[in-house]
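Lab notebook: predicted structure, single chain.

Context: the supervisor wants predicted structures on file for every construct in the current expression panel, including those that have not yet been purified. This is the next one on the list. No modifications to the sequence; it matches the entry in the shared construct table.
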Amino acid sequence: MAWTREEMAARAAKELRDGFYVNLGIGIPTLVANYIPEGIHVTLQSENGMLGMGPFPLAGEEDADLINAGKQPVTELPYSSYFSSADSFANIDLSVLGAMQVAANGDLANWTIPGKMVKGMGGAMDLVAGVKKVVVVMEHCAVDKKTGAIEPKLLNACSLPLTGAAVVDMVVTDLGVFTIDKKAGGDLTLIELAPGVTMEEIRRKTPLEFLHL
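Prediction complete. Output recorded below exactly as produced.
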């Protein structure tokens, strides 16, 4: 048994702290907004320079200029404010992002697969370069749609183009939670297993050495 996407988002939300300015990336990270711990206040940021995102609007009340990273419509809050993207990114305490690959030293690849048409990496490079803490939320393995082969996403080194080098602090997957000590040159430590997941399974699906608590 492994965590669902919702459960992964809920686990990532435990890293939020009162007063944090938080960026939520495309995919599973957008679900983190549903699990902000009771009793704390966080301000959500959108890559278009909006600081202070509200909930999804009612049908018919959408504003095309108010969107989150997944291009979903959001609303303003009484304290919402607007900056250039550069200034907006400079305020972020925590960024929760998806990824295609993460390396043991914290390298992140999450913007393109060679050969596929991509308009650009958006604000991902700016986010990971200046944010205080980066948490990646992703499936532990990818499944090749053509062959059905299982491909690990937590690796010794990324094979895809990097978004940032040595930028990831924590990885939450459907199997467990890892921290990366970048000061120690990339010590990867398993700190939590998802309910029902065994150490044998996680070692079988993780082709690199890691420490564990």
